[in-house]
Design goal:
single chain, mainly beta, Lipocalin, four-stranded antiparallel β-sheet, 1 helix, 11 strands
């Protein structure tokens, strides 16, 4: 079993004996100022022999399941700008999906997809339309409200495998044109 704490420390736990084969402490600065809703972590994802977790300092990590050693660490954003990650990421077919927090600090929220093996950011999808995009005209004219605030993905995203397949086929066709 694997357990993550609100301070983003991770422990492996032998369910039969209670032994802790390994532990990894996050080392996150305890004075981090963008924790809006308490020190918490909603869980981890597993895939390809790794555990994936988001951290309050807006990093996403991959840890080796057997040793707890860090495989990669990717910044989703900079916590100093109001960003954080409290949601459990989602692993599916070689990709890790992660939301982020920060709506309380006026950031533009998004879903980020990362390559599970490398941690490389593959793409981002914003939850609010940007200026000039469909739906952005619902914001007051002459403001940047659509670019800052709300619609954070602070819980694990859902995934429909059929829609993922359609999305990637569409992207491949657009890339070829």
């Amino acid at each position: 079993m694997y357990v993550v704490t609100g301070n983003d420390a991770v422990f492996a736990l032998n369910g039969k004996t209670g032994e802790i084969p390994w532990e990894r402490w996050s080392g996150i600065d305890q004075k981090i100022s963008t924790v809006c809703c308490g020190w918490l972590n909603r869980g981890m994802a597993m895939g390809e022999g790794m555990l994936f977790l988001g951290q309050l300092d807006a990093n996403l990590l991959a840890l080796d399941m057997k040793t707890g050693k860090e495989v990669w660490k990717s910044p989703i954003e900079d916590w100093r700008n109001g960003y954080g990650v409290t949601s459990a990421p989602l692993y599916y077919d070689g990709i890790v999906y992660s939301g982020k927090t920060g709506g309380d600090f006026g950031v533009r929220s998004r879903l980020t997809a990362l390559d599970a093996k490398s941690g490389k950011i593959l793409w981002r999808w914003y939850t609010l339309p940007g200026l000039g995009e469909v739906g952005s005209d619902t914001w007051p004219a002459g403001t940047d409200h659509a670019m800052r605030g709300g619609a954070s993905i602070w819980n694990t995203p859902a995934l429909d495998p059929q829609l993922v397949l359609i999305y990637f086929r569409h992207r491949q066709l657009r890339t070829r044109l």
